[in-house]
Structure formats: structure tokens, C-alpha cells
Write a structure and sequence with these properties.
Layout: H1 3-32, H2 38-66, H3 73-89
């Protein structure tokens, strides 16, 4: 895959995980302090746990389609050839 796409993919994944961790922490603190908004935060956290990864997957899938990002088959082919050469020499 293209290095630019890989970098963007990693950044989006880190941002998603960071957002979820902050949301979990806010929900936990709100529940410990017995705040009235704890239930709403929990429901939002539950929804975000399901929706955000799905949205990230769809976004990356669409980016792959529109940017025409293909896995680099040459690297995989070279790895396979290297393994087969090693197996033949044994």
C-alpha cells in the first residue's frame, strides 16, 4: 500500500482510540461522582463504541476505493519467492 495511506490510516486509528478512551474516562468519572449526566454519557459511550469503529472502517474502505490503493503485490511475491528458494535449497 502507499505510505501516505498507511500513515493516514494509523493516524485515524489512534484518534479513534484516543477519543474512545477519553469518553470512557469521562463516563467513569461522572459515574463515580454520581452526576445526573452519567446515564447519558454511558449511553453515548456505548453507541460510540459501536459506531466509531464501523465509521472508521467505512471511511478507510471508501478511501481505498477512490484513491485506488492496491496492496503492493510485488513485495508479497518477492517474499513468497524467497521462501520457496529457501525450501528448495534444504
Amino acid at each position: 500500500m502507499q505510505p501516505r495511506f498507511q500513515k493516514l490510516k494509523k493516524i485515524l486509528a489512534v484518534l479513534t482510540v484516543s477519543f474512545l478512551l477519553i469518553l470512557y474516562a469521562a463516563t467513569l468519572v461522572s459515574a463515580i461522582l454520581a452526576r445526573p449526566e452519567a446515564h447519558g454519557l454511558f449511553m453515548g459511550c456505548l453507541a460510540a463504541t459501536i459506531v466509531l469503529p464501523v465509521m472508521l472502517y467505512i471511511l478507510l474502505w471508501l478511501m481505498r476505493m477512490f484513491w485506488k490503493v492496491e496492496p503492493d503485490l510485488r513485495e508479497e511475491k518477492q517474499k513468497d519467492e524467497g521462501k520457496s528458494k529457501r525450501n528448495r535449497s534444504k
